[in-house]
Structures are given as C-alpha cells and as structure tokens.
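Protein Record: Sequence and Backbone Structure Tokens
======================================================
Tokens: labelled as protein backbone structure tokens, with as many entries as the chain has residues.
Task: work out the structure tokens from the sequence, keeping to the layout shown below.
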Amino acid sequence: MDVTLPALKEVGSQEATHTFSIASAPHEGALMVATRMRDSSYKRALGSLPVGGEVLIGPPQGQLVLPEGPERPVAILAGGIGITPFRSMLLDAAHRGLPHRIVLFYSNRRPEDAPFLDELQQLERRNPHFTLVATMTQMERSLHPWKGERGPIDLAMLLRHRDPGMAPVYYLAGPPAMVYALRSLLTGNDVKDADIRTEEFYGYG
C-alpha cells in the first residue's frame, strides 16, 4: 500500500509517498509496516512523526498471497526487510490452520540484522506445515552464535530443503539484485515464470 506523509505533500516533495508491504496479518487488529530507517527525506519525516500523527493510506495492491489450494508446496525466498509481506502470509496461514506446506528461505547478514527472526522461529514450532530455513552470510561479523545455514540462498540449499518430487510455487522479495539473481537461478533450472511471484524493494528509501 502507498503511505503519504501530509507534511511532505504540502511542500510539494516528490518523496511524499512511499510503497510498503503490509506486514500484519488480517486478524491482528492493527495495520503494520516495517522498514529500514535510511537517511532520506521520507524516512526522516517518518521517523519524526509523532504517535497519533496523520498519514494518508492508499488501497491494498499486489499479488503476494498464498494459492487458494494447498496441492502444491510454497517456497518463499526472502532477504532482509523483504520478509515483511511473508510475515503477514505466514501468520495468517497459522491462524487459519491452512494445510499449505510452506518453506521459508530467509537470508540475512547476521542474526542481529534479521527482522522478525525470533517470531518466525516461534511460528515454526507452532505450525507443523511451516519450515524456516534461515541463513546468514556474514557470521564472521556477528556477536551471536548460529547453528543454521550459512551463505547465500543457492540451488543446493533449495534442493536440500524442498519436498522431493513436488514443484513448488516460488515467492521472492528482497533487494532487487537478490531477487533478479534468484529469479535467474529458478528460470535457469526449468521453473516457469508463472510459478514465480516477486516483489522488489528498490533502494529501501
């Protein structure tokens, strides 16, 4: 959804509106977005917005929703703050007891950089249909222990954790370079474009 900051709109700023993925699930009762706070005019204005401050919200858009039927497994490939739309999907699936088989491949530099990591780990314990495959790419810079996967998401990692004999529907979100590389990886391994759904996070601005 588009979120417009009236203070920036009033001064004619071209950065008055920013598109966010909805991170909250329908049952949560509050509308949540999550973002990295960068040094842009929009993020500065957003960061200084007081509690109860006014924003203008556009209608929901996009196609990152689970398939209607559970016949095919779902493989989610997310990087960093690209996790936001999938938090909504995963919490909704658990809340409604959906039978969809979902594997989330979640890439971050370090555990301390990974949004919602603790919540996702708890969700995996609650939902028997959900598997979390978190991977870290810069553990040499981390102060936390890590027993999970390391390195970027690649074909070998996908094959280790996918349902054998079943072709999943793939969902991709994260930095544009990551999304482009993963889409190329998938299409280069005979995954049809119709089975890949993407959302890029341009500039994180």
